[in-house]
Design a protein that fits this description.
The complex is a heterodimer of chains A (290) and B (372).
Chain A: E1 22-33, E2 36-43, H1 46-51, E3 59-64, E4 68-73, E5 84-89, H2 93-99, E6 106-113, E7 126-132, H3 140-148, E8 156-162, H4 171-179, E9 184-189, E10 199-200, H5 203-210, E11 217-222, H6 225-237, E12 245-248, E13 264-265, E14 268-269, H7 270-273, E15 276-278, H8 279-283
Parallel strand pairs in A: 7-8, 7-11, 8-9, 9-10, 11-12
Antiparallel strand pairs in A: 1-2, 1-6, 2-5, 3-4, 3-6, 12-15, 13-14
Helix pairs in contact in A: 5-6
Chain B: E1 4-8, H1 12-19, E2 24-31, E3 36-41, H2 42-45, E4 49-50, E5 59-61, E6 79-89, E7 97-102, E8 110-115, H3 117-131, H4 138-145, E9 147-152, E10 178-183, E11 186-191, H5 194-202, E12 207-209, H6 212-234, H7 242-251, H8 257-262, H9 270-274, E13 281-288, E14 291-298, H10 319-338, H11 348-352, H12 359-369
Helix pairs in contact in B: 7-10
The chains are: A alpha/beta (290), B alpha/beta (372).
Bound molecules: iron/sulfur cluster (2 copies) and FE2/S2 (inorganic) cluster.
Chain lengths: 290, 372
């Protein structure tokens, strides 16, 4: 069934105080890889939960009170905003605190923030998604959106790259997608290993080998900065037009609402003008985005 | 609002003291202990404040010197609590620990007296950041709404000033509530806003209305004084074509000059601390046992930590990139976003820098160098 009724995002800004988080309760945690976990939370206040909505690509400031806020993409399907999922790699104080959460604990959420993938404008096109490691997180709600509105889009291809099979996130999704006729899934790992019968090699190389046609195709990529950089180069080489190539960027964010100055790339604020940008937009900014 | 008043110089002290009865009145004064001029809360230093030279007090009112720091902290404090949180056990279910959030903010009535035109312009720029965009900043706005600005025309050009080069003028009264001009044994008081008007009317025991003829005379003298002061200033730093700056800086983004001009910077942040238009902040948590607060504090973009991501990736890892960002933020990015420069030419950053970085020279050098 097509689900197009994602209503206009109710911005966190509808609140009088954009710094005041909503309280959410941890419902479930999922160990994705040895150092990456996903947390599913639900807004505690029922009326807030009922009126909440977001669009694929939008982010949230997630906090464990006492450790501070960090920015994550809401990576669960936008068609069900009652449960919000975030995926976190354990690297710093905040991410460690989030990784240690257990069901029943409270967190703070300021969301939705930022812009989203222009899914509507892409209807009728082929969609090529290239993700690396935890960079599949921002792309996940987009994939769900396309799958839920399958008839509106042409071919959907996902190239997913990870260091090792174990470092792949969302293994349950991958398994389903592998079996599905609605999505072409290609997976690659950095070096060959026992029991792996998919691609081997770095993501940009595999992409180049795949030679996707730019004709009527929108390409979306997210991953570690270095992967994004080389993926974009390959896409250019394959004659993709900058206006049909998108990425979603990460910067340290604090306020999330264009005040604290923190997240700028040139004159753009990632928290307000992004995190989703077309390569065409990015090429106009003199400051490098990687 | 054309009403013009006069204030006898001898009435300045009682006037300010009367205002201090229901407002925090900030005045520029020199602290003789360390010789620094800064804004002080009148009621905190009242008994130690002299209103003229030759008095044996620790502080002396100083309406000539430029204050070391800008008055931005009156509306935008260096540290500020955003919210308090506490973990509380649910009495019905002892296993369940809820979180309680509360916000309390003080926004006292404030008056900033004696600020110069550059600092007034800067406050207008702060207003644009915190009062416009996709959402207003309620913490800043509440303080700002309760603040009245009384500025004083500026006749002295200090070594580091360059307000006219960036679109300002020493008698630019366009963002103040009341504007003062020193005139012999009194001050002439020009009213610019409703707030200013209300304050002037409530001050009728000190301010005397000027009649129409005198008013005209004061006004033209003020304009003349402003013109002279501007001329004096522009003779030192020629006017820049403010509108073209952004474009030129974009073209010069990869200029090789950047490396040379920025390598001295030691990322100390002093320039941001004193700058009246720098507005960046950090948000942090502080927790003690089961309760704590989330607060914000000023931050600065020349710091390595500013853009450092949790993964270790830093998009502006070297000082060249950071300093370039700072300059572009002031003369390019904010111009593209808001339509004005985020530098009012107060020169404080030039004065304070421990390694003598001079933003004026740097911009000039980069623009001259154009391409790599
Ligand atoms: S950049 Fe320097 S001169 Fe310009 S407003 Fe800030 S402190 Fe003053
Ligand atoms: S005051 Fe000088 S050294 Fe310190 S951050 Fe500013 S430019 Fe760099
Ligand atoms: S996070 Fe504060 S301006 Fe973007």
């Amino acid at each position: 069934m097509d689900k197009t009724n994602i209503v206009e995002s109710k911005h966190v800004m509808a609140k009088e105080n954009p710094y005041l988080p909503s309280v959410a309760v941890v419902k479930k945690t999922i160990k994705e890889t040895p150092n990456i976990i996903s947390v599913q939370v639900m807004l505690e206040d029922e009326s807030e939960r009922d009126s909440f909505s977001f669009k694929p690509g939008q982010v949230a400031q997630l906090s464990v009170f006492g450790s501070g806020e960090s920015t994550f993409v809401i990576n669960s399907p936008a068609s069900d905003p009652s449960m919000l999922q975030f995926t976190v790699m354990k690297v710093g104080v905040n991410t460690t605190a989030i990784s240690n959460l257990s069901p029943g604990e409270r967190v703070g959420i300021r969301a939705p923030l930022g812009n989203w993938f222009p899914c509507q404008a892409w209807e009728g096109k082929k969609i090529l998604i290239v993700g690396g490691g935890i960079g599949l997180a921002p792309l996940r709600p987009l994939i769900f959106h396309i799958l839920e509105n399958r008839k509106k889009y042409k071919d959907l291809t996902l190239l997913y790259a990870a260091k090792t099979p174990d470092d792949r996130c969302y293994k349950a999704d991958l398994k389903q997608w592998e079996a599905s006729k609605d999505i072409n899934l290609a997976q690659t790992i950095d070096t060959a290993c026992h029991g792996w019968d998919e691609e081997v090699g770095l993501c940009p190389h595999v992409l180049e080998k795949m030679k996707p046609s730019p004709e009527g195709t929108v390409a979306v990529t997210c991953g570690p900065p270095i992967m994004i950089k080389f993926t974009l180069e390959v896409l250019k080489k394959l004659n993709f037009d900058s206006s049909h190539v998108y990425t979603t960027l990460e910067r340290r964010m604090k306020c999330g609402v264009g005040k604290c100055g923190r997240c700028n790339i040139g004159e753009k604020f990632v928290c307000v003008d992004g995190p989703v940008f077309s390569l065409e937009e990015l090429e106009k900014i003199p400051e490098p985005f990687i | 609002m054309e009403t013009i008043y006069t204030l006898k110089k001898q009435d300045l002290k009682p006037w300010l003291e009367s205002l201090a009865q229901d407002s925090d009145v900030y005045v520029p004064a020199r602290d003789r202990d360390n010789s620094l001029v800064d804004f002080f809360n009148l009621s905190e230093i009242k008994d130690d404040l002299g209103f003229g030279q030759g008095q044996e007090k620790r502080y002396v009112l100083d309406l000539v010197e430029k204050t070391k720091r800008s008055p931005k902290q009156v509306m935008y404090p260096h540290w500020e609590d955003l919210l308090d949180f506490s973990y509380e056990k649910d009495p019905e279910n002892i296993e369940d620990e809820k979180i309680k959030l509360s916000v309390s903010q003080e926004a006292p009535n404030s008056i900033i007296f004696g600020l110069k035109s550059c600092d007034c312009q800067a406050i207008a720029k702060m207003d644009a950041v915190f009062g416009q965009g996709i959402v207003k900043d309620p913490y800043y706005m509440k303080r700002r709404e309760n603040t009245v600005l009384i500025s004083l025309g500026c006749d002295t050009v200090f070594e580091d000033c360059f307000c006219t080069a960036v679109g300002g003028s020493p008698y630019g009264f366009d963002h103040t509530d009341l504007g003062l001009m020193e005139d012999g044994d009194h001050y002439v008081v020009f009213v610019y806003t409703k707030k200013g008007n209300a304050l002037a009317q409530a001050s009728n025991s000190y301010l005397a209305k000027a009649d129409a003829k005198d008013g005209q005379d004061y006004k033209s003298r003020m304009q003349e004084r402003g013109r002279k002061a501007s001329e004096k200033m522009s003779s030192m730093w020629p006017k820049t074509a403010v509108e073209d700056m952004a474009e030129h800086l974009n073209k010069a983004f990869d200029a090789s000059q950047w490396k040379k001009v920025s390598q001295q910077c030691i990322s100390c942040g002093a320039c941001t601390f004193v700058c009246p238009t720098c507005y960046c902040f950090d948000i942090r948590d502080d927790k003690d046992n089961r309760q704590g607060k989330r607060y914000r504090c000023w931050d600065f973009c020349t710091s390595y930590l500013y853009t450092l991501e949790a993964s270790g990736h830093n998009p502006r890892e070297d000082i060249q990139k950071r300093y370039k960002n700072k300059v572009n933020c002031k003369y390019n990015y904010n111009f593209q976003r808001q339509g004005h420069l985020y530098c009012v030419g107060c020169g404080r950053c030039v004065e304070v820098c421990p390694v003598d970085m001079d933003i004026r020279q740097i911009v000039a050098a980069v623009l001259k160098s154009k391409q790599p």
